[in-house]
Each structure stands twice: as C-alpha cells, then as structure tokens.
Amino acid sequence: LDCKVLMGPSGYKDNPYPVFLSSASEKIDLAIVLGGDGTILAAARQLAPESIPILAVNVGGHLGFLTEPFELFKDTQQVWDRLRSDRYAMLQRMMLEARVCEGDRCSPQSSSDRFYCLNEMCIKPASIDRMPTAILELEVDGEVVDQYQGDGLLVATPTGSTCYTASANGPIIHPGMDAIAVTPICPLSLSSRPIVIPPGSVVDIWPLGDYELNTKLWTDSSLATSIWPGQWISVKMAHCMARFIVLRENYSFYQTLREKLQWAGTRIHFDNNHRVN
Amino acid sequence: LDCKVLMGPSGYKDNPYPVFLSSASEKIDLAIVLGGDGTILAAARQLAPESIPILAVNVGGHLGFLTEPFELFKDTQQVWDRLRSDRYAMLQRMMLEARVCEGDRCSPQSSSDRFYCLNEMCIKPASIDRMPTAILELEVDGEVVDQYQGDGLLVATPTGSTCYTASANGPIIHPGMDAIAVTPICPLSLSSRPIVIPPGSVVDIWPLGDYELNTKLWTDSSLATSIWPGQWISVKMAHCMARFIVLRENYSFYQTLREKLQWAGTRIHFDNNHRVN
Amino acid sequence: LDCKVLMGPSGYKDNPYPVFLSSASEKIDLAIVLGGDGTILAAARQLAPESIPILAVNVGGHLGFLTEPFELFKDTQQVWDRLRSDRYAMLQRMMLEARVCEGDRCSPQSSSDRFYCLNEMCIKPASIDRMPTAILELEVDGEVVDQYQGDGLLVATPTGSTCYTASANGPIIHPGMDAIAVTPICPLSLSSRPIVIPPGSVVDIWPLGDYELNTKLWTDSSLATSIWPGQWISVKMAHCMARFIVLRENYSFYQTLREKLQWAGTRIHFDNNHRVN
Amino acid sequence: LDCKVLMGPSGYKDNPYPVFLSSASEKIDLAIVLGGDGTILAAARQLAPESIPILAVNVGGHLGFLTEPFELFKDTQQVWDRLRSDRYAMLQRMMLEARVCEGDRCSPQSSSDRFYCLNEMCIKPASIDRMPTAILELEVDGEVVDQYQGDGLLVATPTGSTCYTASANGPIIHPGMDAIAVTPICPLSLSSRPIVIPPGSVVDIWPLGDYELNTKLWTDSSLATSIWPGQWISVKMAHCMARFIVLRENYSFYQTLREKLQWAGTRIHFDNNHRVN
Questions:
Q1: In CATH, what class is A95-238?
Q2: Rounded to whole angstroms, how far apart are CA atoms C153 and C168?
C-alpha cells in the first residue's frame, strides 16, 4: 500500500489535528481514529471542515455511539482490502457551527473564528466556587423566542440528541434527519420545553445578567470560548458534514437506542403471533 | 362575485364534506370553515386529499392554533378583496395517512380505506367499564423498534406536536418541518422516550394481547376504526398536504407557542441592554 | 391444623369477598391470595376494611410488586410452621378512601358508599367512540389548587406511586411513608406538575364541562362508579391499612425498584474502591 | 422597646452570623433578615442550629418563596406591636445536615463539621474549563440504591422541592411534610427517576471516578466543601428546624405554587357551576 501515514496522540487533552493538517503536503484521504466517543467528536470537529472521512475504532470507549467495534479490526488486511475496494458505507452527519458576535444585531461583527460541533453547542456558565444561574435570551431567525433561566442551553444535532440533550429530557431525533434541537438544561420555568426546529434556522443566544463573566460556549462538552458582555453566540447548521466510514453490516439507529441507551419499552415481552412473516 | 356557495353544519358530530364533494360539479376553490380546532381538523382530513384550500375562522374555539382570528372577518369586503387579488399567504402542512393491514408483512393486504390526520394518529384502546393497557409493537421501516405497554401510542406531525403529543411529554416540532414524532402515552417502562423520525419513515404498529378487542385507531382524537386481531396499522406521510389561507400579518410559530401554550421561559424578565439594535 | 377454609375464584372479573365475609361465622384470620398484582389489589380493597391480613402469592403475575415469590410455597409445611409460630414480617401500607359527594360543599351529602384503593384513585372519562378531555377542578383542604385539562387525574398512595403514577411521570415514593401523590395524566398545560401532599389532606375533585357524562372513578384501575353533574369525588387516607404477610428475608424497596422497574442508573458500572467495608 | 440590636451586611458574599453569635451576650430572640431568597437561606443555615427565629423581609428578591412582602413593614410600629403581643404564626421547616465521612463504612470517621441546608444538598463537580460528568453511588440506609452518571445529585427538603429540584424535574412536595427528595441532575440513564424517601433515611453519596477532584458539596447552591477520593457525603434530616415568623394572613402553599411558579393548570378556565357554596 503506497501511502503516507501521520500518527499522533488523541484524547481530550490532545489536539494533533492542526499539525497534521499543516504538515500534510497533499489532501488527507482518511483519518483512522482510535478512542472513545470524546476522541471521535474532537476528530470530527477538526477534520469535517477539511472534508476528511473518519474511520472510528472503539478503543476503551464506553458507549461507542459513533465507533466501529474493535473486533472488526483484528483482521487488518481485510479492513484495508475493503477500504481500497470501496466496500464500505459512508455515514454523513450534519454538524453545527457557532460564532461569537457583537455590535449591531443587523450587521453583527464576528469576534471569533468558527467553532464546530457534531453533538451540541452548549451555553453554560462555569465557576469553581459558585453555581451560577444562566439567563439566556433565545432568538430564532431574528425573533425572540424566550428567556431561559437555569443551568444553560443546548443546541444539538440529531447525532447529539442521544447525549446531553437526552439527559436534559430533550427529544431523541433520528440521525438521518437534518434538524436542530434547542433544549434548556434544568430551566426554572415549569413550562419551558425543548423544541425541534428546521436545519436552516439561525439560533442566537444572548447571556444576560452575567456580572461575573462566567458564561462559556462548549462544543461537544469541550470548552470553546468565554462570552463577554455585549457578545452573543450565533449557531447554525455547518456548511460541512462529518463523514464516517461504516464497516458493520446492518447498522441501525434503533438497535443503537436499545443497546446503548438501555431503551427497554416493556418489562414483559409479548409474542407477535399474528405476524405471518 | 360570481361563485357557487355550498353551506353545511360543522362540529365533531357532523361530516358535511362527502355531500359537498359529490354535489360539486366543478372543483371547489375554497372552503371557509368556521369553528374551533376540532372543526378545522375535520375539514383538513376531508378536504386536503381533494387539494381544497381552507380559510379557517376561529368561532367559539378555545385555542385556535390553526385559525385566523374572528376579528379579521368583520370587514367581509376586505377579506373578499384580498382573496380575489391573491393578497394572502398559503400555509402548507404535512399530514399523515394510515391503513389497516393484515396478512403477510412483506405483501400486506390493505383491509381499509386510507385514513388521514393533520395532528396525530393515535392507537389506543377504548372501553366504558375497563382501563385496558395497550401492548403495542412498534416497527419503523421494517425493523422492530420496541414494544410499548401503557395507554397508547401517538404518531404525530409537527402540527400535532403541540397538542396531545405535548401533553404526553413529546417533542414540540416547528410546523415548517417535515418529520414524524412517535410518542408513547404513559408508558409503563421508565426508559421509553419519544422519537423524532424522518418524514419518509413507515411506521407499523401491532396491537398485541388485546383479548377484548378494545384497540382502536383515532385520527386527530376522532374515532377512525377498530383494529382486529392479526391486523396492524401502517402510518406514513400523506401524499397530500393541508393548505391554509393566512390573512394575518406576522404569523409566527414562536409567538403561537408563547400565547397559546402559555410558554413562559422565565418568571423574571431581564433586559437585554447589550442589544444595539 | 384446626381451621376452617373458604375457597373461591380470583381475577378482575370475580369478587368472592362479599360471600366470604358474610358466610364466615368468626373473624377471618388470614387470606391467602394467589394471583398477579391485580388480584392482590382487589383482595386488599375488600379485606383491609375488615382488618384481614393477606398472604399474597405470585401466580401468573408479571411484575409481582406486592407478592411473595411462588417458590417460597413449594415447602407448604414450612410456610404453615412459620405462620403458626409468628415467624414473618407484617407490612402495613396506607390506603385511600373516596366518596361521591353532592350538594353544599360545606356540608356535603355523601351519595355513595366508600370506595377503597391500595394503589390509586383515578378520575378519568371512558367512552367507546370518543376520546373525551377531562376538565377537573382540584381542591385540597378546601382550597382550589388548579383546574386540569387532559386525560384525567391520579390520587395515589406511595404503594401506587410505582404504577400508573410513575407512567404519568409522577414521583416514586417510598412505601414506608404516608403521603398522597396527585398526578395529572397528560395535562394540556405545560406547567402542570405532580405534587406530593401530607397524608391528612382532603382531596376534592370536580369534573366540569362533561356534557356526555363520561367521567368515572376508578380504584386501582377497576371501575368504581360514574360521576354525575353536580357530584364530586372526595379522597382522603383510609382509616384502615392493607396488611401483607412477608416471608421473604431481606425485603427491600430499592431492590424492587431495580428489578421490577428495570431502574438502571448507569450504563457503565464503576467500582467503589474507596469503600473499606 | 428595651432591646439590643446587632446589624450587619447580608448577601451571598457576606456571612455576618458567626460574629453576631459570638458577640451576643444573651440568647438572640429574633433575626430580621432583609434580602432575597439567597440571603434568607444563608440566614437559616446559620441561625437554625441556634434556634433563632427569622423574620424574613423581601427586599430586592425576585421570587420570595420564604419572605414576607415588603409592604407589611411600612407600618413598622404595627409590626413591633404584633411581634411583642405574639400575634403571628411560626412556620417550622425541616432542614438537612451533611457531613463528609471517610474510612470504614460501618464506623465512619467524620472529617468535617456539619453543614446545614434548608433547600437542598447538591453533590456536583465544578471546573472552569471542563464539563465533568459526575459518577455518584447512592446508598440509602446502608443499601446501595444505584449509581448515577450526569451533572450531579440533589438531596432536597420539601421546602427545596420547588427550587433546583423542580428544575431537574423532581417532585414538588408540600412543605408541611417531612420527607427527603433525591433527584438526579440530567442523568445519562433514561430510566433514572427522582425518589421521595422517609425523613429518617440516611443518604450516603460516594463520588467515583473523579480523577481531577472536581466534586463538591453545595448547600442551597452555596459552596460548602470539596470531596476528596475515599470520602463520601452522609446526609440526614437535621436535628434543628428553620423557624420563620409569618405575618401574612392566609398563607397558602398552593397559592405560592400558582403565583411564584406560574403554575397554570388550564389555558381556559371553566366555571364550576355545580358548586353550591
């Protein structure tokens, strides 16, 4: 196999991707990422904007929503053969991009680079000696939807809907769809509900009343940036998609739900005797 | 104005539409429906398959999610002028269609006409002297997703997501999207969750263990048909869409959420002083 | 063993208890009830007011929250020996009683016998061809708390909190407590929440707007009575308690939660290495 | 009025109470606390163990669950007269106490003072640059109930049940009851549920897998202490109660629910015409 290989560490403290990208003289054809879901998410955030497909291998990860099982890689030769002869499926998943904005709402100045996420953007305060309440004004497509008080706000993709969003009682969305789920985290208001909105929506979130400057933007639970007074976060569907190579046969979202989320509809299973087939 | 007008009663006990449709010698251009949401839903189920647009006027209805406010019709002449000169918006909303199937799953026999709904298909038992527990096997695109035990199962459009689905703790979905929400009603299992699936999905629901033949299909809370042993319900996106004429300026889904659902994010409202514009 | 034994059928269609109670010349010392939870609940409703303890044996029941496992009864002689020598625990569980009232609120006339339940009182409409929305005014200790619109209202004991109440997203309460849980079933209002109130509370529920007379009182999911216009249901803690003979060693509510409700806190189990003991 | 008055600042950054307590030569008869709920909670934590009753006045507070309205204090003379002539109600509310333990579970060494709370004990990690997932083993009365993964765990009094616990979808409990609510904050597991347990329960919580030592104990959202590896938190009902002087007539928990929590059962209000009285 005539190919150049770059290797580097992975994990939540490591970010080898900028070096890879700058040191590669040609377009990178494939990234093989070994790790748990956190590692894969980091790879997707860095590699999706460069259109580099990812082959994700579950090593030491607990849940492995996004990864191929390690067993598939025992026969390395077979994996290479399948990759070279295009015998694999390519899973494309929508991502979100966020920018920090400031100034005039109608012609905002972008005061940051773009941040990407595959699971969710989270706007949430952080402090080591307080438990600050976030006050967040939510605007969708230029219309103020509501103000939320609570632990924070999640703007998630369908892929991310089974993660933090599900924990915050948000909707589980089939990852084959393009949609954005906005879910408040522990809202003070009893009537706050998650909403699912079209993928073309622009979601602007303004932190208010944050006199101690605790509010931050998190991408897939990883710190992206602080948000200063007068700034807001603008989130929309990313122009790029995460692309995963799937070697498993019979990949099914519903099977993943049952196995990874211990989704168990009934405590007693009934036979479907009527089913002819 | 040179037009023929047919008039008839409305309400949950009346169904004037088959007579209208059979007695009209030409295509019907417009149905003006006066009533509450229940009346409008019935009109949509009957008229959408015939591609007849609806001008829905809130008369005596409580919530009026789908209706134009009655005040707009006080100046009748202006309404006619706007209709004749095409000065209105047309809101299109996806619907669902259901059939009762039986026999071999791979080549099912349809044992019923098509049933339509604008809000939701509901599979739920009914009895006057018992509270039967439904046991329902859910299949999406030919794959068994789960069995649910509980009060029943809702298969809803985004339009219906603010109705029974919201009461059953299902997701609120922007009606501008095409999507299907499957929500269990009071499931026994603690881990059951609503799911949002692509509009192209085929949802098959099998009632099991119903020895007293109580299970029924309801369209927008209106009885459609009983389901016999060996039969199942197959739901998919309808080929037709409900079309509503909108005369209001500034129609907004988020405003409807706040006003009709008493959506109230914060108990204390903060000023957004940072907003330049 | 010198004892008189009365035997009769059980199940949701059978009620042998009035005959037992009227034909017994002396106080009944013990009822041995074989069945599932539904059978045991029916026995408790009939026998608790007579202070008759129940030995409940799980036969054919699915979940068996209240029953002793059938295996314990294989050695019948040992069971008799334990019963005669008082080697068993007695579990006492609070019940609720309800009456239908009418007339003047301050001096209501009781227009029914007392109805008892071990799990929950449920006020809910029933119809075979409609899905009626209940409108229920809730009064606690003479104060109007709220009006609920939706599928109905549950007034549950801690014992019942793991049943229909849990399905309706109500609180799970330790059965060793005396408390009353009021839980709306699929409320239209987004801000409705279940509440846990003191065992001494008097809960009055008025069905409103029920023009078709569908609303009924259900005790442990079993039909008790219809509620006519002008009548209301008054629920309070019963004067009697259900008494169950427990032969199992190490009975634990938390174990029941994990096993019967498939309660599973974590998907990955961590070792507690720090635990010295 | 012959009395000594000590005055000091209040607020979340101030703690004037130790100075007050040590400088008072006699038992303090009354603390008049002006502020919002946070200020009142801090006062209760410090003063309840000394059996000092609190007269709480809502000054600048938003919600004021625990406070008397400021208007009542405009006529100061009348307030003094009522206090001196015992014309007020005394509201007693259960509190929780927590200790940090280590060593042998059966004879744990207490490695901290007692911490008190009126609303809730919260075990939750804090970090300024990460969003750590807590893994917490919950033991009640010496029995392991479950492990939770998520944002943290709340152990609340009925008073606290309308605060953070309600935001985390926990049960609302009448403050006249003695009970403990254990509520997971955004648990990963779909089947985790809040539980209400008897006031005599001992709740032990072990942080596991916290390799960065982020986990902390918070009392009423205020930092109490860090939790080191091998340590756990033991929570039980406090020996002391918070005592509030109530000057309002017609205090009602249900009214508070409706007004402070914007509890709104129905969107349309029906008249109860049947009510004679």
A1: mainly beta
A2: 10
